[in-house]
Amino acid sequence: DSVKDDLTKVEGIGPKIKGLLNDDGIWSFVQLSKAEISRIQKVLDNAGPRYRVHNPKTWPEQAKMAAEGNWAALEKWQDELKGGL
């Protein structure tokens, strides 16, 4: 999968976390949408205390919406989210 999406479009993911996910082999919205939350949490946990506080529970669903091109619905949902929650 050579697609490299801008994962920062997912609420709660900034440039640093995007880099951590990339290092773990997650580059696209499709890959993120299929990733187990436990895998994402492990990436955050391994990065240290600054990242452990992030809750990735909505990230796969947000990524699925992005992969499907549902930008309007995603933006509406993100307006309701606070830091990805």
Q: What does this 3D model show about the protein?
A:
- With 85 residues, this protein is mostly helical.
- Helix content is 56%, strand content 0%.
- The chain is built from six helices and no strands.
- The longest helix has 10 residues, at 37-46.
- The protein is globular, with a radius of gyration of 12 Å.
- The termini are far apart.
- The mean pLDDT is 94.
Please give the structural blueprint:
Elements: H1 15-23, H2 29-34, H3 37-46, H4 49-52, H5 59-67, H6 71-80
Backbone shape: globular
* Series of secondary-structure elements, N-terminal to C-terminal: HHHHHH
User: What is the typical, i.e. mean, pLDDT?
Assistant: 94
**Low-confidence spans:** none
Terminal CA distance = 28 Å
Structure summarized in a few sentences:
The chain is mainly α and 85 residues long.
Considering the chains and any ligands shown, give keywords for the structure.
mainly alpha, about 0% strand
